[in-house]
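Extended Data, panel c. Modelled sequence:
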Amino acid sequence: MPLPRNSKRAAIAAAILLPLLVVSAVAADYAKERSDVRTRAAVLTGGDPGAGEAKFIAYGCGSCHGLEHVRKASGVVGPPLDGIALRAVIAGKLSNSPENLQHWIRDPQAVSLGTAMPDLNVGSRDARDISAFLYTRT
C-alpha cells in the first residue's frame, strides 16, 4: 500500500535531514575537542596557540619542518612536527615538557652543540606561544 503524500514528504525530509544532523553533531564535537586541546596547550605552556601558529610561520620554522595543514610548513631538513605533543623525547635527548621544548626553541645549540637547528633568537614569549601551538598537534 503506498504511503500517503504527507508521509512521503516526511520520509524524504527525514532521509535528508538525518545525515545532516549527524554531520552537524560530529562537527560540533570536533570543534569542542579542538577547543579543549587549545585550552589545555595554553594552560600547560603559558602561551597562545593561535599566536604560536603565526610565529611558527613568521620565524620560518616550516622551511625545515613539515607540519600538516600549516602553510609554508613543508620542510624536510628537520623532523615533521605532527604529533609532537605525544612524543616522549624532543631534540633527541630531552624529555618532552613545556620547559624543555621552550628551551630547545630558544637555544638549540645549548641543548645540542652543532645541531642543524638554528638559533633564531626566539624570545621567551614567542617560545611559549610556539610551544603552545605545537602542543595542539596531537
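The first strand starts at residue 89 and ends at 90. This feature is highlighted in the accompanying rendering.
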